[in-house]
Design brief:
heterotrimer; A alpha/beta (about 425); B mainly alpha (about 300); C mainly alpha (about 280); A: alpha/beta; four-stranded mixed beta sheet; B: about 300 residues; flat
Chain lengths: ~425, ~300, ~280
């Protein structure tokens, strides 16, 4: 008696589980799934709102997946999905350096976009995303490296202009940091940036060394150039700030951590992307109207160079709804939506004509300055499918220097060897 | 004669039934264990990768590259250091705590129940929690040490290469001391009281009793626990992944292999690293099985 | 006398320090999950919340994908446990009761498989899931979890079944029962406590698994709690998501802790026989 009840119960529970297990997969309706990038701030929530009219019009549900706010991890998960030929994901994000690694999984956008539609985007980004004559992605938003500074504090300590060189950054940081700490704020630091071992920091690194005239690890022809006197000087100087001008915790900060730190009011300078401007100007922000942006500082022999960033959208060749997905991308990138994202989130539009928009220039006076920036790109063009390895090797080397595990000259020499080992017979 | 024949048939029937009963288990384990493993071994001799479809057989190139890669050796060092230090701490603290919980006192039930808590918390959850406790500005570890005057300035525990691995070891120790406590407690309860009484009559103090009776009686249990925990610690992934990510001061062999395979798309190279991890673990497993004396079952 | 005093002091010292070490992180998780964010990010920290709020819990439970991951975890851990118990009770019965050639090798292989490093089978499981068309479904996880739940269950159940006197089997055999009937009608009911202990532990192990879940799932369809918690990125405008993380951690931990406390004796039994008895 007891036995049969036990058995029935066991069989029942088992059957119930197996049924739920199979039912889970069969919920699909008309649906587009987006795997987003490391879009800090509330870009994803904002995008969800923007997409709503399109969802209603097309009777389609758009799902934006939850991903870590970390480009390196997103790439790992994305590659995993592509290797699995996962047809559940229609639209993927692409960092400005991933083209070489992902192109064979992307469909040609020229099937869905007319030449007129394509011509509206910045020509440079279109050529960046054109591989073997195929347009593999279209820009979602652009990014350039900005140097944030506290206007109120510089004024308080008698500096009338923002710093132009790294030496001035150091000088101002030392003075303000000492002053603020003496005034009782023990947590005050001079400078903060996203220093974690991940792709978000790789742009800062090429800004650092190229602002000293030290190149970008690997040059356009694919030669390893990591170990040179200028990059050595840049890294000697900037990594020595950790623990003095820069908080020691910086080696685990991702972009949004740096933004959060600066927004707390305890930092004088920050390197970040434009989105931080909108986030920190929001109501309730402790630094609202107390900061401004300028170009990335430079070293004694170099000139200021702003790191090129930004995200593209592309369609997976495994997607079963490619046409619908392309339509959604067009909607996402309608001039109104692009302008709205710029006004609310400071996500730079992919249409250059919008940079002349009066509303945008009024909200962000610095846009005029940004148009004239010299840009520096991470060495993804020359390293192709091996870019992840190159970037990881450089990031680890700099991390070793920042945490004091290794001396700059020796570690740089070692990095040069490592990059050559990765290069092997060629990129 | 008849009896003998019947016995023979019975043995044959038994063997057949046993095979039948074991078949489903074997089938599933072959699919989820042996097949993937053989595939990894095969791929480790090829240049399979995420970026191209054609696969070439490259003999031992991946293994040679692996051994030429300083990152692999650094990861191996981190992993072994982590395993040895955390297991040593777990065993020492586990024995101490088991001795305490073996004594009859009010609240013993509560303490034994509390002991189970770290054991059942998911490793990633626990790692997030400790990451928060180690936070350089808002972490409770810094706050407490500052209040007690043990440190002057906050420490970035997970960033500083001198403290990062130890911070992870402290977390892993917290998670697994209860396991050691549990197993040691079980064998403590098997030690006959008479042994202690006899020793007390002989005038042996508590320390002498611990060294002369308790430790020898626990020897086999401790040995098993050490190997069991070592096998787990050498495979560590979750904790480090959550707490320090790719930071070179703490990267482990499992993370190295995953990075090669998934992040860099180098399936062949990552497989070679995985095979070496497998060999390391199998070596440990053989020692473990020796201890369990499977043949005595 | 002094020695007695010393050892009493040592006793209470170890007990106090040990309990503090074990319990404090758990306490800290709960307390932080109840703090408003202004208090969470104010130094010096408050060890007892000045103000209690359920905001973090509201935020976490309003997040559909997190709630879904809890459901997913239940299905995956439950499915893996039921399937391993079913398969392993048969295997364990054969191993505990019958003598046959190759029995030792069988035990070696089964036990050895439970120690396979996950990373060494990850790629193959991935291909397998893809070939079977179950990538990013519950089945991918249920099946891959067999590699650790199944050997564990076989191992522990074998020792439990061995403790059941075989006179009962013999009586049943004389009554003409088949091996299948004996297993189902005699052994399983008697091994009930063993099944519960084994099942609970394999459930907890499956519930906590991370690397397979990270690799074999793509989205909320099948993503389980450990992955959801590890990938937690508040994506919030003004603050680091620690309030939500601690709340989410509490939500997923409290049930498992309660389960463990309710079945304390069984779990201890299962753990000891899993590792040591052999």
């Amino acid at each position: 008696m007891k036995l049969s009840t036990f058995r029935k119960a066991a069989v029942g529970v088992a059957a119930a589980f197996m049924m739920t297990a199979s039912a889970g997969a069969a919920l699909a309706q008309q649906k587009i799934t987006i795997m987003p990038g490391a879009w800090s701030g509330n870009t994803i929530d904002f995008l969800r709102q923007q997409i709503k009219p399109w969802e209603e019009k097309n009777n389609t549900k758009v799902e934006i997946l939850n991903v870590p706010n970390n480009g390196t991890e997103i790439l790992a998960i994305m590659q995993q999905n592509l290797a699995a030929e996962n047809s559940d994901i229609d639209i993927n994000a692409m960092d400005v350096v991933w083209q070489g690694m992902l192109e064979r999984y992307a469909v040609d956008m020229k099937q869905f976009f007319t030449p007129e539609e394509i011509a509206k985007y910045t020509p440079a980004t279109i050529s960046l995303n054109t591989i073997k004559d195929r347009l593999i992605a279209v820009p979602f938003y652009g990014d350039v490296g900005l140097f944030y500074y506290r206007t109120d504090l510089l004024k308080k300590y008698g500096f009338n202009e923002p710093p132009k060189t790294w030496a001035e950054v150091k000088e101002m940081s030392d003075k303000v940091q000492a002053g603020e700490r003496a005034a009782g704020n023990a947590n005050f630091w001079g400078f903060v940036y996203p220093g974690s071992v991940y792709e978000g920091f790789a742009t800062d690194l090429v800004e650092w060394i190229s602002s000293y005239g030290g190149g970008t690890w690997v040059d356009k022809d694919g030669n390893v150039t990591a170990n040179n006197p200028q990059s050595k000087a840049a890294l000697e100087e900037l990594t020595s700030w950790v623990g003095k001008t820069v908080p020691p915790g910086v080696t685990s900060y991702i972009i949004d951590d740096a933004r959060g730190a600066f927004q707390s009011g305890n930092y004088l300078f920050m390197r970040n992307w434009p989105y931080a401007y909108a986030a920190m100007q929001a109501e309730g922000s402790a630094v609202k109207d107390k900061f401004a942006v300028t170009a990335i500082p430079h070293g004694p022999d170099g000139k200021s160079a702003s790191g090129l960033g930004g995200w593209q959208l592309w369609i997976s060749k495994f997607s079963k709804n490619q046409k619908l997905a392309a339509d959604l991308i067009k909607f996402i990138n309608s001039p109104e939506n692009q302008k709205d994202r710029m006004l609310k989130l400071a996500r730079l539009p992919g249409y250059p004509e919008l940079l002349n928009d009066a509303d945008i220039l009024k909200t962000y006076p610095w846009v005029e300055m940004v148009k004239n920036f010299d840009l520096v790109a991470r060495p993804s063009g020359s390293t192709g499918t091996k870019y992840s390895q190159v970037s990881n090797a450089a990031l680890k080397a700099v991390n070793d220097m920042m945490t004091g595990r290794a001396k700059v000259p020796e570690r740089l020499e070692q990095l040069d060897k490592e990059l050559n080992r990765i290069k092997g017979r060629g990129w | 004669m008849i009896l003998f024949k019947r016995a023979e048939t019975l043995a044959a029937t038994h063997a057949r039934t046993a095979m039948l009963f074991l078949a489903p288990t074997f089938l599933v384990l072959a699919a989820v264990g042996l097949y993937p493993l053989s595939r990894t071994i095969w791929l480790s001799f090829t240049d399979a990768n995420f970026f191209a479809d054609d696969v070439r057989f490259v003999w031992f190139d991946n293994y040679l590259d692996l051994h030429a890669n300083p990152d692999w050796w650094a990861a191996l060092y981190n992993t072994v250091f982590f395993a040895v230090a955390s297991v040593a701490l777990q065993v020492v603290l586990g024995i101490a705590f088991a001795m305490v919980l073996n004594v009859n006192f009010a609240g013993r039930k509560f303490a034994r129940a509390a002991n189970l808590i770290p054991l059942v918390i998911a490793l990633t959850v626990a790692s997030q929690l400790w990451k928060w406790m180690y936070h350089d500005v808002f972490g409770v570890v810094n706050d407490a040490l500052l209040r007690l005057g043990l440190i002057q300035d906050p420490v970035a525990w997970l960033n500083n290469p001198n403290t990062a691995l130890w911070a992870i070891i402290a977390m892993s120790t917290w998670k697994f001391v209860p396991f050691v406590t549990l197993l040691v407690l079980a064998s403590l309860q098997g030690i006959p009281k008479e042994l202690y009484e006899a020793a007390e009559i002989d005038g042996a103090g508590p320390i002498a009793r611990f060294i002369r009776i308790t430790l020898p009686m626990l020897k086999s249990a401790i040995a098993v626990v050490v190997v069991f925990r070592m096998l787990d610690a050498l495979r560590v992934f979750d904790i480090v992944y959550v707490m320090t990510g790719n930071s070179p001061a703490t990267v482990t062999i499992s993370m190295f292999a995953r990075q090669q395979m998934i992040e860099f798309g180098l399936v062949g190279a990552g497989s070679a690293a995985s095979v070496e991890i497998f060999l390391l673990i199998i070596l440990g497993t053989m020692i473990y099985m020796r201890m369990l004396k499977v043949e005595d079952r | 006398m002094i020695i007695r005093l010393l050892s009493r002091t040592a006793f209470y010292l170890i007990l106090a320090v040990g309990l503090f070490y074990i319990l404090f992180p758990f306490y800290w998780m709960i307390v932080n999950s109840l703090k408003p964010s202004a208090e969470l990010f104010a130094t010096p920290l408050s060890y007892w919340p000045r103000q209690l709020t359920l905001d973090n819990y509201r935020a976490v439970l309003a997040d559909g994908s997190f709630v879904r991951s809890i459901f997913n975890s239940f299905v995956v851990a439950g499915g893996a446990t039921i399937l391993s118990l079913a398969l392993s009770s048969m295997a364990a019965y054969a191993l505990a009761r019958y003598r046959f050639a190759g029995k030792q090798a069988t035990l070696y292989i089964i036990l050895g498989m439970s120690t396979f490093p996950q990373i060494a089978v990850l790629g193959g499981l991935f291909t397998l899931a893809r070939a079977l068309g179950i990538y990013n479904t519950y089945w991918a996880l249920i099946l891959s979890y067999m590699i650790f739940t199944l050997p564990f269950c076989v191992w522990v159940l074998t020792s439990f079944i061995k403790e059941i006197p075989d006179t009962l089997d013999e009586a049943a055999t004389i009554d003409g029962a088949s091996a299948w009937q004996i297993l189902w009608k005699v052994i399983i009911p008697l091994a009930g406590p063993g099944l519960v202990a084994t099942g609970l532990l394999s459930f907890i192990n499956a519930w906590n698994e991370f690397l397979f879940a990270l690799t074999l799932t793509a989205d909320n369809q099948a993503r389980t709690v450990p992955v959801a918690v590890a990938l937690f990125s508040g994506q919030s405008e003004h603050e680091l998501p620690w309030g939500k993380i601690t709340a989410a951690s509490t939500v997923v931990t409290v049930p498992v802790v309660l389960l463990a406390l309710m079945f304390q004796k069984r779990i201890v039994e299962g753990l000891t026989s899993g590792a040591v008895k052999g």
